[in-house]
Each structure stands twice: as C-alpha cells, then as structure tokens.
Amino acid sequence: MTDQNPNAYPPAAPAYAPYPAQKSGTNVLAIIALVGAFVFPLAGVICGHIALGQIKRTGESGRGLAIAGLVIGYVYIAFVVLFTVLTIVFAASAGYSSSSY
Questions:
Q1: pLDDT at residue 39 above 90?
Q2: Which residues are in the DUF4190 domain (predicted)?
C-alpha cells in the first residue's frame, strides 16, 4: 500500500511564466523627428537617426515615425539645396546676359 492519503489535495499546478514586459510607449525623439522635419529639417534628420538607434536598443515603438521624419527631412533638405543651386545658376545666367552690350 502507498503512503498517499486519498483525501489529500492534488499537486499544485506549475507556475506560469509572467507576461512579457510591455513596451514603454512611443519614442519621444521619433515624434520630435516627425514634427521637426516640417519645422527644421536638419533637426528632424538628426533626431530621426538618434531615435532609430534608441528604438533598436530599447524596443520602443515609433520606428515608422522616425523613418518618416528622416524621409521628410532629407527630401526637404534636397529641395532647399536644389532651389538654392538653381537660383544661383539663374542669377548668374541673368547677370551675364544683361551685361552683354
């Protein structure tokens, strides 16, 4: 005969693993990158690169915001550079054509 009591409780169920830690939310620099890309594009580009590094390291959300800030910032900077170059070229060509007698 065994030493087990038939009236004893069944063995306890195994403990379950706790839920994984929740992500701490959206990365603040990712939001700043998106907003900054419209106001000051260089700030959007810088904050976007920093935010991507932080998101990779911490697992926060906001990767899309950071990428959008980078894209908008780079496109805005490209348009400003292109406009500046075209303005200089146009001004130089207009100056040469008016000075010829």
A1: yes
A2: 28-83
Cα(76)–Cα(49) distance, integer angstroms: 16
Find where tokens 């038939």 sit.
6
**Residues 69/36, Cβ–Cβ less than 8 Å:** yes
- Name the β-bridge partners of 26: 61
Residue 88, H or E segment: helix 63-99
What's the pLDDT score for residue 9?
Answer: 75
Q: Could you tell me which of 50, 48, 37, 47 has the C-alpha nearest to residue 77?
A: 37
**Alpha-carbon separation of residue 12 from 6, 7, 8 (angstroms):** 16, 15, 12
